[in-house]
Specification:
The complex is a heterodimer of chains A (166) and B (153).
Chain A: H1 3-24, H2 28-48, H3 52-76, H4 92-112, H5 126-135, H6 139-165
Helix pairs in contact in A: 1-2, 2-3
Chain B: H1 4-29, H2 36-39, H3 58-83, H4 88-112, H5 127-136, H6 139-152
Helix pairs in contact in B: 3-4
Classes of the chains: A mainly alpha (166), B mainly alpha (153).
Chain lengths: 166, 153
């Protein structure tokens, strides 16, 4: 067990423990804050897999953006924070069957897959290769992405504006 | 040898350790003798009334939505910023067109007033209005009206 494994298990533990608290916490704002650690832990796992661009996206969009949107959604919803959310367990047997099947399927995939065990080398940054293909081969898609974001921007603003008038 | 992300990880560990050690050391050193007076609200503070979880203005949500779009834009600009110099003017223009398209969106929001904050309009009392009101009605009439409304209610 070398340093890489230790850091991997550290991030995995962070992700799993905070994910458990997200589900079981009765206060929705506390759940949202635990989600911060879950998403951050996943970003750490991305880094360890050598997916640096994905890790940056995870930090910037999910930790920086989606979480803020979630918290704002909670804050502008009236009287949601005073309600203690029901986190009891119901339908244990059907849930256990479904979860058991799903976990079994995942475990069988894990066992059957022939994992590529490449010697540990410092991964080449994926951002550079991505940028190269965004400028040369997929430049049209790059510009269409801009137009897609423009549509989302205008759509979001106009929906919010209509609600404002009511 | 550490990778670049390894350096970031060391920084994160240092930041966590710094806060943890500072809080723990302070707890170890400081005296802990609370009295009734010490536990009251600090002199200029006010005792809170009601819950702080009030409904926030919907405007915050719109700003958050707009922020999210530009957040995604910045993420997409990362790989472009790494490589555009290799392709000269063509690579530069590819990114500039992308930016201009979203700049149009920004201009649209600005022009439509989505970035404006919905403020309540203050009712400023002007002197000319007050004089006009007083000349229209004599002060006796106002008193009579007031007593009438009091009786009806």
């Amino acid at each position: 067990m070398d340093l890489y494994d230790i850091i991997f298990y550290l991030f995995a533990l962070l992700t799993l423990v905070s994910a458990y608290f997200v589900v079981t916490n009765k206060n929705i704002v506390h759940s949202a804050f635990f989600l911060l650690f879950t998403l951050f832990g996943i970003a750490g796992l991305y880094v360890l897999l050598g997916a640096d661009f994905l890790a940056v996206v995870q930090i910037m969009v999910y930790v920086g953006g989606i979480l803020i949107l979630l918290l704002f959604g909670v804050m502008i919803t009236n009287k949601i924070t005073n309600v203690s959310i029901k986190t009891g367990t119901i339908h244990i047997i059907p849930a256990a069957i479904v979860i058991g099947l799903f976990a079994g399927a995942l475990a069988s995939i894990m066992v059957k897959t022939q994992w590529q065990t490449e010697s540990a080398k410092i991964p080449f940054t994926t951002s550079y290769a991505l940028g190269k293909s965004l400028i040369t081969e997929y430049v049209l898609i790059f510009e269409i992405l801009g137009i897609l974001l423009l549509i989302a921007l205008i759509g979001a603003a106009s929906i919010a504006r209509r609600e404002e008038k009511e | 040898m550490l990778t670049e992300f390894g350096k970031i990880f060391v920084f994160i560990l240092l930041a966590v350790a710094f806060v943890g050690i500072a809080i723990f050391a302070a707890k170890l050193i400081r005296p802990h003798r609370p009295t009734q007076e010490k536990l009251t609200t600090y002199e200029c503070g006010e005792n809170p009334e009601g819950t702080p979880w009030v409904q926030f203005n919907i405007r915050f949500y719109v700003v958050a939505l707009i922020f999210l779009i530009f957040d995604v834009e910045v993420v997409l600009l990362f790989p472009w910023a790494l490589t555009y110099q290799d392709y000269g003017l063509y690579g530069f223009l590819a990114g500039i067109i992308f930016l201009v398209v979203l700049g149009i969106g920004m201009a649209y929001e600005w022009q439509k007033g989505d970035l404006e904050w919905a403020r309540p309009k203050p009712n400023i009392p002007y002197l000319s209005n007050l004089i006009k009101k007083n000349t229209d009605q004599t002060s006796e009439n106002i008193i009579v009206e007031q007593t009438e409304t009091n009786q009806t209610t």
